Amino acid sequence: MPDQRYRFWRLDDGGQTLVLAAMDDRLPECVYWGGALPMDEDLTTVARAYALDVTGGMLDENPDLSICPEAVRSFPGQPGLILRGADGQALLPRFSFQNAKLSSPGTEGSEPRQTLTLIFADPENGLRYSASFATDPTTGVITAQAQIESETPVHLDWLAAPVLPAPQLSDEMIDVSGRWIGEFQLNRTPWSAGIRLRENRTGRTGHEHFPGLILPERGASNTAGRAFGFHYGWSGGHRMVAEELPDGRRHVQFGHASGTESAPATRFSTAPLYVTYSDTGLNGIAVAFQRHLRDRIVTWAKPGTPRPVHYNCWEAIYFDHDLTELKDIASRAAALGAERFVLDDGWFGQRDDDTTSLGDWTTDSRKYPNGLNPLIDHVHSENMTFGLWFEPEMVNPESDLYRAHPEWALGRGDQTLGRQQMALNMARPEVRAYLYDHIAAILSAHAIDYIKWDHNRVLPTPDAAQTRGTYDLIDRLRADFPTVEIESCASGGGRIDFGILQRSQRVWLSDSNDALERLRIQHNAALFLPLAVTGSHVGPRHCHTSGRTIDIGFRAWVAAQRHMGFEMDPRELTEDEAGVLRDVTTWWKANRDWMCAGDILRLDSADPSVIAEQQTARDGSRFVVFSGKADSSSQIAPRPLRLTGLDVAAKYRIHLANRADAVALSRGTPVLKTDDITLSGRYLMDHGLTLPWSFPLTMWVIEGERQ
Ligand code: GLA
Question: How far is the CA of 191 from the centre of ligand 1 (A)?
Fold first, then answer.
C-alpha cells in the first residue's frame, strides 16, 4: 500500500538503483543503493524496511540520515551544512519540501538518462537547498551536486554534496594518498565508530589527497565482489567524511575543504560528486570512472584523431636550451616515432633555473634570438606537432611581473616560498586578463597545439575563489583556442581530478619516469583514469628521480600501457635501445585506437611481485595483458595469472607478443614461449596463463583475440 507520508524518487541506470525516500516534508534519505531493483519493487516497503529499531539509550525515533543531515533534527553525526549569518552567528537550517523534478528515462537527449532535482526551503533562515542527480546508463556513473542559496549573504563553513550511505558489510575503506614521485597510494582503513576524515588544505588537488574513495564489501577483489566508488571533481582541495554513527549507520560526505569559501555570499555550490556501484569488484568502479571521464568529462580538442606519441625535453635538457641541440633531439625523437614535441620549462623570461621569471611569458631572446618559430618549423618538418610549457598561476619574486605588481601575489609578502615562487591571486580579474593576454599572444603567434599547464607549489592558504579563477582562465583560453590541448601537471600528479579534466585532455601522472614506480602508480590510478588521459613517458636509462638503472624494454612497455611518450635524451640511446623503443612504439601505434577506447582491468595476481592488468577492447574482441614483474618472487616458478571479464564460452587466441625477451634462465618449455594457443574464456579466467620465468623489472605482454 502506498503510504501518503512518503515521497519517493528512484534512479536506475540498468546496473544500479538508487532510491530516495522522504517522510512528510523532510529531506530524503537514500534508502537503497545497490544492484538494479526489479521495476515493480514496492518503494513504500523499501522505505519501511529501511527503518531501524529503537532501543535503550536512543532517541524515540532515529534521526534521518538524509542527503544533507540536519543538526537541528538531533542528527548524531556530522551535519551536511554548516553556516553562519553575516553577523557570525551559527544558523541551524531546517528544510522542508518545495519542489521536485524527475525526468523520465529517454527524455534527456538520445540516452536514457535520468535527472532529478530536489528543492527544499528553510523560510525561517531565508535559505534554499537544492540537490541534483543525473544517471548515465552508458558509463554507470551517477553525478550528484548540492547548492545552497540565501536571501542575505552568509558564511559557509561546510556544504556536502548529496550524502550517501556506506555499506554495512564492508570492513574497510580505500582512499588515496601520495607524494611527489609517489602518487596514487591506496590506503586501506578499517571502519570503526566515528570519523575517517580526509581534508586537503593545500589549495590544489594535491599529490597527497586525490579526492576518491572506494568502499569494497567484504571479500571484494579487483575482479569480483561488490564495491561503491566516489570521486569529488574539484581542484581546490576537498574534505571527505566517512562516518559510522553510534547506531551503526554509515555515511560519506564530500565537499570543498571546509572554510575555503572565504567571503560571505548568497549562493554556494559543491563540485559534482561522481559515484558508482559495482558487482564486478573494483574493476566495475574503475571501468565506470574511466569511461565517464573519457567519454563524458573530457572535451577532446581534435575528436577522432589518435593520441600522438609525445616527446618531452625536460629530462634531456632541463633549463639548458640550445636551438641546434633541440633540433637534433627533435629529429631523433621523430625517428623513434614521436608525433608531438613538447618544449618544457626554460624558454621564457630569463629562466636559467627555477629561481626566476615565472610570470614573464615572453620568449627568452638570448636562447631564441629569432623566437620559437625556427624550432617549431623544424619540429613540423619532422611531422610532429608542437607543445609548450606554462605555469600560469605562478610568479617568482625575481620577475618583471612581480616587480610591477607585487600586489597580484596571493598571500602575505613574507610567506614561505615554494620552489622560490608565489601563486598569483586568480580571483583578481586583472591577473586573469594579464595571463590570458600573454598566453593568447603566444598561441596566436605560433602553431602550438598543446600546453603543458603546470602548478608547482601549494597555496599559502586554500581558497575556492582561486580554483574558480583558474577554471575561468582555462575556459576562456579553451573557448578561443579550441584545438589546443591542455595537459594538467602539478609537479607531476598534483592536480588530477574530474574538475580540471573538464578543461584538459591529459594528466602528467607523476614526475617519476622510473618504470617500476610508474607501474605501481599507473595501476592504482586506473581505478579512476583511462589510458587516453594518462601520460607515461620512457625515461632515461639512469632514472633521475630514483637512481635506478632500468632496461629499455621495461621502460618502453610501461609507457606503452598508457598515453605513450619519451622523456630521455635520445642521444643516450644505443642502437639496440633505439631499436627496442622503435618497435614498442610501433606496436603502441598499431594498437592505440582500440586501447584508448577500451577498459583497463586490474588483475588479481596470485604473486604479489606481479602487477598485472588486462586492457580489453570495448567490444570484447581483443585484449592485451601487461604482466609487470615488480620484484623477485618468493616461490621459484611463476604462478598462473587469471584473466577477467571474458566470455566463458568463447575461445581466445593467445600470443606472447614479446616472447623474444625470454631469458636464458627460463630453461623450460612453457607453451607460450614457442606457440600461440587457443583457450576458452572459462579456462583463462578460472585457471589462468602460465608465463615463462622472468627477471624482476621486466614485462610480459600477452595479446588475446576472440575467435
Ligand atoms: C614540474 C613538472 C615537470 C617539469 C618541471 C619544469 O616539476 O612536473 O614535468 O615540467 O616542472 O620546471
Answer: 38
Report the DSSP pairing between strands 142-159 and 273-278.
antiparallel
Q: Specify the CATH number for the domain of residue 177.
A: 2.70.98.60
Q: Is 454 a catalytic residue?
A: yes
Give yes or no for residue 449 CB within 6 A of ligand 1. Answer: no
Torsion of CA 437, 439, 442, 448, to 10 degrees: -140
User: In sequence order, what DSSP letters do the residues of 456-480 get, joined into one string?
Assistant: -S--SS--HHHHHHHHHHHHHHHHH
Please, are residues 450 and 385 in contact by the beta-carbon 8 Å criterion? yes
Number of domains present in the structure of the chain:
3
Q: How far is CA 381 from CA 72, 316, 389, 460, in A?
A: 68, 21, 21, 44
pTM of the model: 0.98
Q: How far is the CA of 455 from the centre of ligand 1 (A)?
A: 9
Check whether residue 121 and residue 170 sit in a common domain. Answer: yes
Q: Is 222 in the pocket of ligand 1 (CB under 6 A)?
A: no
Is residue 472 within 8 Å of residue 416, measured between CB atoms? no
Catalytic member of 511, 599, 607, 661: 511
pLDDT in tens, 285-342: 999 999 999 999 999 999 999 999 999 999 999 999 999 999 999 999 999 999 999 9
Spacing, Cα 612 to ligand 1 middle (Å): 29
Packing angle of the helix pair 323-336, 575-597 (nearest 10 deg):
70
Counting from 1 in the atom list of ligand 1, the atom nearest the Cα of 490 is 8
C-alpha cell at 172: 574497510
- Determine the atom of ligand 1 nearest the C-alpha atom of 489: 8
What domain range includes position 577?
Answer: 310-596
Please check the confidence at residue 106 and state whether its pLDDT lies above 60.
no
Termini Cα distance of the chain: 52
42 is a catalytic site residue: no
Which of 467, 471, 518, 509 has its CA nearest to residue 488?
Answer: 509
Which among 575, 596, 617 is the end of a domain?
A: 596
Of the residues 454, 497, 607, 661, only one is catalytic, namely 454
Probe target for ligand 1 pocket from 511, 513, 537, 543, with the most ligand atoms within 8 Å of CB: 511
CA distances (Å), 218 to each of 133, 164, 170, 281, 559, in order? 28, 19, 5, 11, 34
